[in-house]
Amino acid sequence: MNDLPTIGIDIGGSKIAAGLVDRDGRVVRRTQAATPSDGRDAILATAVRLGREVGAGSAVAGVGIGAGGVIVDGVVTSATTLLPGWAGTDLVRHFATALGTDTAAAINDVHAHGVGEAWCGAGAGASTVLVIAAGTGLGAVVVLDGKPLLGAHGTAGHLGHVNDPAAADLPCSCGAVGHLEAISSGYGIVQLYHRLGGDPRLTDARDLVARAATDPDAGQAVRTSATALGSAIGGLITIIDPDVVIISGGLSSAGHLWWDQLRTAAAAAALPLVARTPIVPAGLGADAGVIGAARFVRQTLGSVSVKGQS
Ligand SMILES: [Zn+2]
User: Fold this and answer.
1) How many whole angstroms from 163 Cα to the centroid of ligand 1?
2) 0.85 cut: is pTM over it?
């Protein structure tokens, strides 16, 4: 059973990807589609269709799903900023039934990406891996010997929602003010730039980063944003002592200024003993979520079966 491939499905805000992943983490078949904009049921139907597509004709050991929201025991328990009806969705039961397997598992999408990177991306071979997802939002996950740290309520790793003095009174996507995400996410860095008096027509973090060398407000936004995130990472390095810190998401391609500030701030904030911990870009690209979801269900093989069917 454990030699069989597993299916990984990564349900994102703009696209849904599915892959048939072998026991060594290779994606042997993959497909994807745009995420439907007409509600939860359409999203689930598309994800099921893609899962069937990659699994067609193959014996599989199970299906893993990575999706937004807080997920506990396969059920979405909280999804305040996502689509209506997402909270309460029993992902495990839905996909197990639809795909005809009695082995399914679901995990938060940031956690899935981290598990994928730790397994066969930039963290391959390391036992303690900290993965920072710096995209539109800001999240993190600690992966210990291949397993994600989920916490007592499934919320572990919400790095974006810790207080940071540099974010002061800035509004956060969660409704609070003063959180790190409000300054260090893709959205946050643009918000900071506007607050500094930058061009109000600029709304894309990539455009902002591209003009950091010529637009003083953009340069300042990049420095402030990367320094705040780097300081937070330095604190996490001190607490967790990871072998490696991996940065994934759109901001990981933000260029030298962002990376230099981030690494300098992290080293300054961390204990000297761990200040040289490597901080590196992610290695798997768009496959990370699919591979991580496929890995996560593999970890449950033999120990967990679908509720009500065991
Ligand atoms: Zn927040």
Assistant:
1) 8
2) yes
